[in-house]
# Entry
Amino acid sequence: MRIAVSYVASLTRPRYGRRMRETHFGYRQVPLSDKQALVDDVFHKVARRYDLMNDLMSAGLHRAWKDALVTAINPPKSGRDFSLLDVAGGTGDVSFRTIAAAGTGTRATVADINADMLSVGRERARERGLDDAVTFVDANAEALPFPDRSFDAVSIAFGIRNVPRIDVALAEMHRVLRIGGRFLCLEFSNVDVPGLDALYELYSFNVVPAIGRAVVGDAEPYRYLVESIRRFPRPNAFADMMRAAGLRRVSHRLMSGGIVALHSGWRL
Ligand code: SAM
# Structure
């Protein structure tokens, strides 16, 4: 009898096993399989105002952070061939800056999962006459549609914390990097400067969503962005994830009092 009861119970149990895999979406716990759609909705809402919002929220600082990233990418000033893959590249900012800093042989590929962000990026490339130098590809960071070892450098700026399976995305970015190529990740971090931390907290949770409401008409996407920053692993924990993906000589440097970290690793 006991056998019959446990057999019936096994038929009615959820098919995913005892517990469905969960992750966080900002401060909310959600099924892992739901996160990408929630993230896509955020960037669908903000795409048209994304670049303006970056300037307003960071008081223009994101430009300096991205310039530091481009300096680390170090594209050749000569006409030598050089290929950059910018994952979660959105509206193309990092790619445009890289091309501007480089010689004629440099090409950039922007890979992003959100069609609205890509469409703004394509318009910007057309306006700048950069159609040939920058290519936009609809792609998920967890399953990059590129051959192994096909890029000289791979970057991801303010994108990795939005990806549901960070370990899978890191393994993919390592896979498409050529031997000797450099991986660079720009991401928000943790402010540890006394005084600045309280101010930053106040600004993030009150001012940023208010700017979002005024400019995009909705505070919610910006509440998510701020919460997702707080949930992102600390630099040393992220460094361990990079090593687990196969990256070597892993390091990071903090900028602006720890608001942002620039992580670096090599495929050797
Ligand atoms: N890198 C750009 C920049 O710094 O301006 C855009 C950063 S924006 C905060 C985050 C981007 O990550 C969005 O364009 C979003 O569509 C993209 N994204 C989120 N999940 C992704 C995924 N799984 N694969 C590729 N891109 C993703």
Q: What stands out?
A: Confidence is low (pLDDT under 50) at residues 1-18. The pocket of S-adenosylmethionine is lined by residues 36, 39, 43, 88-90, 93-94, 112-114, 117, 140-142, 157-159, 162-163 (CB under 6 Å). Residues 26 and 227 are 4 Å apart (CA to CA).
